[in-house]
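hey so u asked for the seq, here:
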Amino acid sequence: MRQNPEGVAIARLLDTLDALGFITRHLHPPQFEALVATLGDRDATLRAALADAAWPEQLRDPVERAGEATLRACDGLRAAVESPDGLRQAYRALRQVSRALEALYPLAAVQPTVSRFFLAADDLAVGAKRSDVPTGVMHAGNDTNERGGFSVYVPEDYDPARAYPLVMALHGGSGHGRLFLWSWLREARGRGVILVAPTAVGDTWSLMEPQVDSAHLARVLGQVARRWHVDRAHLLLTGMSDGGTFTLLSGLDDESPFTHLAPVAASFHPLLLAMADPHRVTGLPVYLVHGALDWMFPVSIARTAQRALTAAGTKVTYREIADLSHAYPREEGSRILDWFLARSGH
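ran it, structure tokens below
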């Protein structure tokens, strides 16, 4: 049976977003041109499908905005191949993927295909809305031209009687929480956790003055916990690149409220542990992820961190990923949540 033009357009859009996700995950400078080639003719077929579709009013705006952002990402990647500043342009282009996902997400409530797209592979469904409490994706002072705000996802089937584990995910250098939220949304949505993605006060996390953004994270956590029922005994702090480094820098501090740490592609210096209170460090669960191909923070840094953290008494789970460069490994999110939720009893 022939699929209607709108169904074809949705399928093309999701397929192109999957292809862009593959490029994001595998982005490595020596392989960049070959990765862009994996797009094939997806952007051309997506343009044609969007032009052929006649959207109902409630679908037109989100699909068109998602489609435009997806095509900007494709165009930016193709242009970056020919640019002497290609890697920087590629990162800029890939930010459009998060914008596309944000535009598309409201359709998950009415389109089963879109809803399934926003779930991790092993998650089958989400429950129906159970209360009048605001749920879904929300933002607080966190437009992409603002610093110091946060974005939050609260499960749509949120039950005020239940205490929810919370994941706070920190973006990389010069990144933004509103964009980084989508690195974790599928996993959070399928596993029933509250997800918070704050934006650093400055251009990146305050690595030289950790008290600045540590206080910011504490304020954000307090705001979220006042509005939704957070299980303060089960709080995960995670982050990518500078966000991973700040996860360690802030999370090892004795005043940190976080019960679990999961730094990804982070830098590390043994002085972090020299300054840490042994009572904070001993027994602290840490899930350390690094790519063997990382060109920014060589994998030797992570191996040093594993040895030092283990010697200091933390409970380290170490994941060294052979084909990972300095990129976020989306597939690791489910493993991190398995580890976190198993320890938390949820």
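The chain has two domains: 5-117, 136-344. The chain is about 45% helix and 15% strand.
lmk if thats what u needed
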